[in-house]
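Chain A, query sequence.
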Amino acid sequence: MNYTHMPYLPSDFRYQWGEFQRDWRTGTASSMKARNRSWTGCSRIWRSIPPHQATMRWCGFFRRKEAPSIYRARSCATAGDVSKISADPACNLSAPPKEIAGEGRMNLAGVPAFYGAFERKTCVAELRPPVGGTVVSGEFKLTGSIKVLDFGRFESADLGPEPSFFESNYFEKRGRRQFLKYLHNLITVPVLPGSERNYLTSQAVAEYLATHCKPRIAGLIFKSVQAPMGNNIVLFSHVACAPTPTFWSVDGAMGVTGAKPSSGSCIEYVADSLVYHDVRYVAHETADEPLSEDKTYVQTGVRVGILTTPDECHCRGRTRQGL
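Chain A, predicted structure.
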């Protein structure tokens, strides 16, 4: 008797992921109720990974002396911007303070994070500079050993032998295996400028991992959207930013709390590593397909799909405009 593997039903992990996305997007990032609900959903997904696998197989342990260089870049609109960076690259290329930290793929606005890449060209490409634009990049190195979660390892992870169809939890095991390999793509979906709200899901995952993983991890490694062969790294604020001291004064007594003399960032700028990039051209790779002229189209995630024909819309008493 022969058996054939069928696609697993989206009743477990993808269904939970869908619930997690909906809870986070329909709530507000500042709503404690929405956060707790989202954390519960994220926890349901993540706790299915055995702890020893999450910490040993899929984490990269970077020792200070063996760690690769990390490159970080900024776009410069004027010569003044270039001069500002060159005057103090350690400060102006590092993670921004929380007062001016904007939102990114793995952080909410007001939550500092250090984004970098393991190749200089990758960190420049991630900025999506226009032709004629200017970018300045610098090299950074770790000052201590850190542990980061490498999403790329999910795609090639050895999860052991395929589960038997006769196991009672066959669909759960098979669904988990496929979902973990799919997860890296989910959190690196391209996001267009002005559509930063689509970062909400990856921001929620990153915040959960930054605060709930035991032992605590310092950051994440994920593939570049702009450079297919490149990899990015994000270091969370608790390791990428020096703690900010808080000064207080009560009845004439003064003090400072929140920072220790020995505390600081785990990453530092490498002197004389600045490079000025003058963008001469930008290469594009496209997926092309014929486009019908009598169809109405709607946005489905990052793709555009056919909704129906205009005549069909009018027949139903509704009029819809194409994008």
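The first strand starts at residue 59 and ends at 62. The CA atoms of residues 126 and 259 lie 33 Å apart.
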